[in-house]
Design brief:
heterodimer, A: mainly beta, 7-stranded mixed sheet, globular, B: mainly beta, 6-stranded mixed sheet
Chain lengths: 117, 113
């Protein structure tokens, strides 16, 4: 149980284009989903917290107009990187929160490797 | 008050040995402490988690030890195997709906055969 999927796993796009990444909780409902960014050999950096049916809350320094997050249902959240530039190249990972054993646990997707050329 | 400090940054252990990774937190409101394992190019996978009302939790070869007064917790991997070679992250948060994990910087474990 507690499986989170992400699509696509890898994407290469040209500078100036937009890319959408989907995150789905496959076997549980997630009222909250999180989006992280990870640089090589570094820890996970929280970008935003997304609650179903409401606007995402962005961390300080994250441009909300560049990283559009939509959480339309209890099993789907999307991250759109608009007008992508090479510095947006990174590993993006989503996480969905579910309840297990009385604890609010976070389960992570497999990640999406974005390369902007 | 939001930091989680993790050590060591890297660790080399012989096959069959015990791997120990330590974390310290500052925010006394934190009440959920998980450990994640991440392989290169993959998302983190939840290994084991603990609440502060318990001093130790064991799942298979993985054990969390928790010291509330010292605000420290650690991961012990018994009988370490080459397949355990990965990056391990500790994390902490206030265990409520909608709150995000605060991660340590990670420990790269290499288990030599």
């Amino acid at each position: 149980g507690a499986v989170v999927s992400q699509h696509p796993s890898r994407v290469i796009c040209k500078s100036g284009t937009s890319v959408k990444i989907e995150c789905r909780s496959l076997d549980f409902q997630a009222t909250t989903m999180f989006w992280y960014r990870q640089f090589p050999k570094q820890s996970l950096m929280l970008m935003a917290t997304s609650n179903e049916g409401s606007k995402a809350t962005y961390e300080q320094g994250v441009e909300k107009d560049k990283f559009l997050i939509n959480h339309a249902s209890l099993t789907l959240s999307t991250l759109t990187v608009t007008s992508a530039h090479p510095e947006d190249s990174s590993f993006y990972i989503c996480s969905a929160q579910g309840v297990a054993g009385g604890m609010y646990e976070q389960y992570f997707g497999p990640g999406t490797r974005l390369t902007v050329t | 008050q939001q930091q989680v400090k993790q050590s060591p940054q890297s660790l080399i252990v012989q096959k069959g040995g015990i791997s120990i990774i330590n974390c310290a937190y500052e925010n006394t409101a934190f009440d959920y402490f998980p450990w994640y394992q991440q392989f290169p190019g993959k998302g983190p996978a939840l290994l084991i988690a603990i609440r502060p009302d318990v001093s130790e939790k064991k799942e298979g070869r993985f054990t969390i030890s928790f010291n509330k007064s010292a605000k420290q917790f650690s991961l012990h991997i018994m009988d370490s195997q080459p397949g355990d070679s990965a990056t391990y992250f500790c994390a902490a948060k206030w265990d409520q709906a909608g709150t995000a994990l605060i991660f340590g910087k990670g420990t790269t474990l290499s288990v030599s055969s």
